[in-house]
Amino acid sequence: MNLLGYIKTNQLSFKEKSFNKVDTLVITWMSYFDFEPIKNDLPLIIKDLDKYPYYQKLDPYFPSFMARSSRKIMKALMTSNRFKEMRILDTLYLIDKKLNAQFAALAVFINNKIVIAYRGTDPTYTGWKEDFILSYKDKIHSYSLAKIFYERIIEKYDEDIILCGHSKGGHIATYLLSELEVINRIKHVYSFDGPGFRTLDLFKNKEDRLDKFTKIIPQSSFVGVLFSNETEMKIIKSRNVMMLQHNCLEWIIKNNEFIYVIKRTLSSRY
Which of 176, 186, 214, 259 is the most exposed place for a label (fewest CB within 10 A)? Predict the structure, then answer.
């Protein structure tokens, strides 16, 4: 099954079935949804979003590139026994052409922990420009925004933190793990097909931090294998082909877990 199938099928509470990597990907994808219109109403339980007509339209889901599929996911989350009680705590969004920054982050309270998800590239020119800047600069402005949002959350709440992101969002979450001075509150970091870094020594003298890190890529990964990757990557199956496997909505899930394989496809290795 795909991600939507997982949300519809897994109706067990977190007491009945513990929080897992697929749950993290669900929240990661939510970072592509637009929560700015309700920012002043946060925190808010996700099932209560149904009272906002805005979330019955396609508009909030366009940043995901797959608006119709994303709206189906939101509707499924609102009625899911597993997810409907999770609480949206905070969000941060910025598009700035002068800073070349396209950034969005979401904080969710779920299963006695807080998951902070960083958005990947959206359909804006600024977003794509920031991606290209990654190829020749050591830092992008989104790094500082990610740190600001993280510090804002840990100042307000005491729970353990999971950081995650898809594509550029996973890249940003990985950077934070390497850059923050204190990481005792961070229990794990997930990068879902996020690109690597120009430098090979990102975790130099901080190798122990990699115990808190998991990078997951599809079998035909293109984005996730760009630049240097000094960490082990878990490889999974997808229902899509070649570069389209970057769309994590079609990653294959069985028994509440991804389907893993030994190696990448020939096209990905090439």
Answer: 259
Give the pair of three-digit tokens for residue 215: 């990078």
pLDDT in tens for each of the 270 residues of the chain? 999 999 999 999 999 999 999 999 999 999 999 999 999 999 999 999 999 999 999 999 999 999 999 999 999 999 999 999 999 999 999 999 999 999 999 999 999 999 999 999 999 999 999 999 988 998 899 999 999 999 999 999 999 999 999 999 999 999 999 999 999 999 999 999 999 998 767 888 888 999 999 999 999 999 999 997 667 899 999 999 999 999 999 999 999 999 999 999 999 999
Helix or strand run (H / E) with residue 106: strand 101-110
